[in-house]
Structures are given as structure tokens and as C-alpha cells.
Design brief:
The chain is mostly helical. Helix content is 75%, strand content 0%. The protein is built from five helices and no strands. The protein has helices at residues 2-27, 30-37, 55-90, 97-127, 131-143.
């Protein structure tokens, strides 16, 4: 009887360990966390892979990205507010579809404005680069999270 109890105890401990480790792994940010670390709007992101940047280029790119951040900060905050309103609206006992449709349209419109601003900023950055640097910049942009997916 003692052997069965010891084996059962070890089995329960193993199951508990697996459940706890699984829960912890589910909370690990993984690729989503990496997306935020390598945020496409980050001033570092726009020139971290471009070879042979001069200090002047780095400074100008940094200024362009800072300007972008200033121009879009409130829009990002507004998106978060609208998304919170949308979550609230869709969890109400009686969902008002006109209201949810309007919120979705507003979120999409703001994201579109941000994306257009990012592309304008990238074009201005590109003007500062040599032909070799443009190749690397374009490659980096095409691999950037949200570049082709419609996400910003």
C-alpha cells in the first residue's frame, strides 16, 4: 500500500508541475512580446539594420521618427479607447450592432491614418539613404511586423 501511495504522490506532483509550467508558458509573451520589443514605430527600429549610417543620418532618422511618434501618440491612445468601448459593447446583454460597426469603422480609420503617416515618414527616411542603404531599409520594412498585414 505504501508503494502505491508513493507512486501516486509522484504522479500527482508530476501532473501539478506540468500544469504550473504550462500556465507559466501560456503567460510568456513569445512572438507578441517580440513584436512590441521591435515595435515598427520605434526610432531604433527604423535604422537598426541599415549598414554604414553616418551620425548625421542617424540623427535625422531619429528626428523623423520622434516626429512620427509625437504625431501618432494620441491616435494610438484613441485606438485603445475605441477598442475598450468595442469590448464593452460586444459583451453587453443586448449588443447594438450599429454601435459596434461604428466603433470598428472608427478604429480602422485611425489605423489607416497612422499607417499613412508611417509610410510618409519612411519615404522621408529613404531620401536620406544611399542606394545600398535603401536596399537594406526596404528589406527591413518588408519584414517588419504589420508591414504587409494591415496592422500598425
Amino acid at each position: 500500500m505504501k508503494t502505491i501511495t508513493s507512486k501516486s504522490l509522484v504522479g500527482f506532483a508530476l501532473i501539478a508541475f506540468l500544469m504550473i509550467s504550462g500556465t507559466l508558458m501560456a503567460q510568456y509573451p513569445g512572438q507578441r512580446g517580440m513584436r512590441h520589443m521591435r515595435n515598427q514605430n520605434s526610432p531604433v527600429w527604423s535604422h537598426m539594420s541599415i549598414p554604414d549610417l553616418t551620425e548625421e543620418q542617424k540623427e535625422k532618422i531619429g528626428k523623423l521618427n520622434l516626429e512620427f511618434e509625437k504625431n501618432t501618440l494620441q491616435k494610438h491612445n484613441l485606438i485603445r479607447e475605441k477598442e475598450a468601448q468595442l469590448r464593452t459593447a460586444v459583451t453587453q446583454p443586448d449588443i447594438v450592432l450599429d454601435k459596434t460597426d461604428k466603433l470598428i469603422d472608427e478604429i480602422s480609420s485611425i489605423r489607416s491614418e497612422i499607417r499613412k503617416e508611417r509610410i510618409r515618414t519612411d519615404a522621408r527616411i529613404r531620401e536620406l539613404l544611399t542606394d545600398d542603404q535603401k536596399v537594406m531599409f526596404d528589406r527591413m520594412r518588408s519584414q517588419r511586423p504589420g508591414f504587409g498585414s494591415g496592422r500598425s
